[in-house]
Structures are given as C-alpha cells and as structure tokens.
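Good morning,

Attaching, inline, the backbone tokens for the sequence recovery test we're adding to the shared suite. The designed sequence is right after.
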C-alpha cells in the first residue's frame, strides 16, 4: 500500500530526477549538443517549457512505474519498467526529430535514448526504494 501523499512522492521524484539530470545538463550535454546540434539550438532555454516537461514526465513516471512498483513492493519492477518508459519517452522526441529534421544526428538519438533509459530507471529504482 502507498502511504505517502502524491505531492510528497512527486516532490521527491522531481528532486532526484533533477539532481541526476543536472549532472548531465551541466557536465556533458552542453559540449555534446553544441558540437552536434548547435545550429538548431535556441540561445536561451525556454524554462517554462522545460518546467512543464518535468511536471508531466514525473507524473507519468509515478503513474506508470513508481506507484505500481510500490504496490508490489518491488524495486526491480521499478527499474525495469522505468527503463522501458524512459526509452519510449525519449524515443518519442528523438526518433521524431530524426524522422522530420534534415540535420538531426543519429549519434544524438542513440545517446539520448541511452540517457533517457538510464535516468528514468535510476530515478524509479531510487524513489521506489526510498518509499518502501
């Protein structure tokens, strides 16, 4: 049974996801993206759009992965279903770009798919373990 409120689970999940993503966005992504898709990037990020993405993504993560794993008391379920959800969600963005943009690199698609799979699996496993 899930004892913590949805708000608490959402805040904890958001914090963990953002902490992991901050390492990616701060250390690896700027140089990687600048070199490969710099010509496509905006000068400044749209923080409102980013915030809406995080709200929706974390809600989906809780609904489809973490809450069901908590009901079953299974960290492994959270990790594996999180990995699949991350792959599917990041594939939506990257494969659409690969299909529709002239200069979207396959390299970025592959890296993003790996990153989405990892961060979603890791966040799911960590959060599930915290709340079990």
């Amino acid at each position: 049974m899930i004892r913590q409120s949805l708000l608490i689970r959402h805040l904890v999940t958001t914090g963990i996801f953002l902490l992991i993503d901050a390492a990616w966005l701060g250390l690896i992504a700027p140089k990687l993206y600048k070199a490969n898709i710099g010509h496509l990037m905006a000068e400044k990020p749209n923080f409102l759009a980013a915030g809406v993405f995080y709200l929706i993504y974390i809600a989906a993560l809780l609904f489809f992965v973490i809450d069901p794993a908590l009901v079953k008391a299974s960290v492994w379920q959270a990790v594996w279903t999180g990995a699949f959800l991350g792959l599917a969600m990041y594939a939506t963005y990257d494969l659409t770009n690969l299909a529709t943009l002239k200069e979207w690199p396959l390299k970025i698609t592959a890296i993003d798919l790996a990153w989405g799979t990892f961060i979603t699996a890791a966040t799911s496993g960590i959060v599930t373990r915290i709340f079990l």
